[in-house]
Amino acid sequence: MARKTTTDDPLAPVTLAVGQEDLLLDRAVQQVVAAARAADPDTDVRDLTPDALQPGTLAELTSPSLFAERKVVVVRSAQDLSADTIKDVKGYLGAPAEEITLVLLHAGGAKGKGLLDAARKAGAREVACPKMTKPADRLAFVRSEFRTSGRSATPEACQALVDSIGSDLRELASAVSQLAADVEGTIDEAVVGRYYTGRAEASSFTVADRAVEGRAAEALEALRWAMSTGVAPVLITSALAQGVRAIGKLASAPRGARPGDLARELGMPPWKIDRVRQQMRGWSADGVSIALRAVAEADAGVKGGGDDPEYALEKAVVTIARAARAGRS
C-alpha cells in the first residue's frame, strides 16, 4: 500500500488534484514542484499528457536511480489515460518509489473513476480544484487571494473586481496580485475603479446598478460601452434581472431587520443589503413588476426572439430606470 499521509504534505508520495479549474490545477502542481526543489534544487520534473504516458513509461520514469535523485512526475488529464497505462499507475500506487512524487490531475467525472478511486484508496494526498461557476465562489476566491497576499480589501472592492474582470480566475488572481503590489493600505472600491477603468464600466453589473438607480443616461452609456467591448447580451439581461429582483426581495422584507438577518433570509451578503437599500429609493411594487416584464422581454430579444438585441437592451434599461424614478415623483 502507498504510504498514508496525515498532513497536507506537498512531498507526499502521491498527490491527486481533482477538478476542472485550470488555475487551481496548475497551482497544485506548482506547490509540489516548489516543495521538491526546496528539498533538492536539482529535482527533475516530468510533466506528461496522456499521449506521452504509454504502457511502461511510468516504470521507466520511476525506476531507481544510481544517484537517488528526487523527481516529480506530473500526469495531466489522468482520466484520459489508456486502460493499459491506468493498470500501470494502479500498480505503482501500491508501492510508490522513494524520492519520487507522482501528481495525478483528474477531471473528477465518471471517466477514469477507477483510477480516481484507486488513488484515494491508496492514501493519496488530495487537492480540490473545482470549476468556479457561481459568482459567490469567485467572490470567495478573490477574498482568499487578498488574505493570502496579506492585504485587506473591502467587500465592495472584492465585488467590484469580480464585476470588472469576470469569470477568468487567472485574470482575477493577476488583478489581486497587481493591486496588492501597487496599493498601500486597505484596497477599496474606488481603487479598483481607478485600476480597471473601462473594464468596470463595461461590466454587466455596472449597467444594472445604474439602471436600478434610475440613472438612465449613465446606464445607456455603460451598456453601449459593454456591447462595444464584447460583453455578452445574456450577461447583461442576467445582471438586470438580479438587480431588479434584489429590489423586490428587499422591498418585501420586514422593515427594521438588521442587515445580517436580512442577508441570511434573502441570500445576499450584508454589504449588498446596504447597497440595495440605497438603490431601492423611489421603487414601488408596480415599478418592480414593470421592470421584471421589461427584463423578460429583453431576455427573449437577445436570445433570438428579436432582430436587434442592442435595441432590446436599451429599451429595458430605459424602462427600468423610469420605474426606479416613478416613486420619487
Structure description:
By secondary structure, this protein is an alpha/beta fold. It is built from 15 helices and 5 strands. It has 3 domains: 116 residues, Rossmann fold (3-Layer(aba) Sandwich), CATH 3.40.50; 61 residues, Helicase, Ruva Protein, domain 3 (Orthogonal Bundle); 114 residues, Zinc Finger, Delta Prime, domain 3. The protein is elongated.
Strand content: 5-15%
DSSP E strands, number: 5
Q: How does CATH name the architecture of the largest domain?
A: 3-Layer(aba) Sandwich
Average pLDDT, rounded to a whole number, is 85
* Major β-sheet strand ordering: 2-3-4-1-5
Name of the CATH first level of the largest domain: Alpha Beta
Structural class per helix/strand content?
alpha/beta
